[in-house]
Amino acid sequence: MSTNGTQSKKELDPNQGGDESKKTYHKQATGEAWKTVQAHSSDNDLKLYGSCFCPFVHRVWISLEHKGLDYQYVEVDVYKKPKLLLDINPRGLVPALRHGDWGMYESTVLMEYLEDLDQGKTLLPKDPKLRAHSRLWSDHINRHIIPAFYRYLQAQEAKDQANFASELTEQIGKLVETADADGPYFIGKDITFVDVQLAPWIIRLEKVLKPYRGWPDPEPGSRWEKWVRAIEGNEAVMKTTSDDKLYLDSYERYAENRPNTSQVREAINSGRGLP
Ligand SMILES: N[C@@H](CCC(=O)N[C@@H](CS)C(=O)NCC(=O)O)C(=O)O
Q1: Residue 119 and residue 113: Cα distance in Å, rounded?
Q2: Could you tell me the sign of the dihedral formed by the alpha carbons of 264, 137, 159, 21, in that order?
Q3: What is the CA(142)–ligand 1 centre distance, in A?
Q4: According to the model, what pLDDT value does residue 11 have?
Q5: Of all atoms in ligand 1, which is nearest to the CA of residue 110?
Q6: What are phi and psi of 7, to 5 degrees?
Q7: How many Å lie between the centroid of ligand 1 and the Cα of residue 128?
Q8: Could you tell me the pTM of the whole model?
Q9: Gap from CA of 103 to ligand 1 centroid (Å)
Q10: What is the DSSP code (8-state) at residue 16?
Q11: Rg (CA), the chain
């Protein structure tokens, strides 16, 4: 407890609900991700505005690292919505990308933009049919897996948690059934678009859903286990992932379904699509 109640109250984030013992979101990356932030802190024409805990940012960051592009990472406090973010995205969400005097947002659109730059390693396959296949299953991730993840994490009743755990398992199962039989990635031995779309949530199954909801480890020897281990061991994923505590702290507000947490929380609670 603080000896100066007034002072510490001032420093509380709204999502702590006036309780200083509650954890809130981190505002600076840690571990490997922090080293990457430091390596990409110099001014650059290509800038990623991100928040260190955000899985949608994580997608774009993994893409930048995978491609080996030259870029600047700029940490923003997304709930304070600085002007430099609102200038690009009036909805005030991260990730946002600035390229020269042009800006854009929405993680999937940004991943496609980086692909269209045609620099560094590609993520979308060359074959048009495989590209369509990748886009279809990216849509499945965005439409079914991610909402199920948040519904499960925010559910407070045991019965709802059990239902949403089944929903999440089922939706992941559909993706795994479609994946290349040998893998380890979605369409084979190399990481591609669908893997990067899902990777941040694979990381958060282990670092968030496991501690808060008892999400099980992948079954030993399963195709899912092979995929999870490949993602966890991927260099671009590792270089953009912070230490466990950052995720544990940053997601406590979701796990308790606290008011004033985020637009994602409100959308899930009101049954709307994600922002
Ligand atoms: N559909 C967006 C979602 C981005 C998103 O929800 N970002 C969260 C952080 S993880 C955010 O900016 N939240 C700000 C807020 O809730 O006001 C995308 O794919 O980029």
Answers
A1: 11
A2: negative
A3: 13
A4: 80
A5: 20
A6: -60, -50
A7: 30
A8: 0.95
A9: 16
A10: G
A11: 19
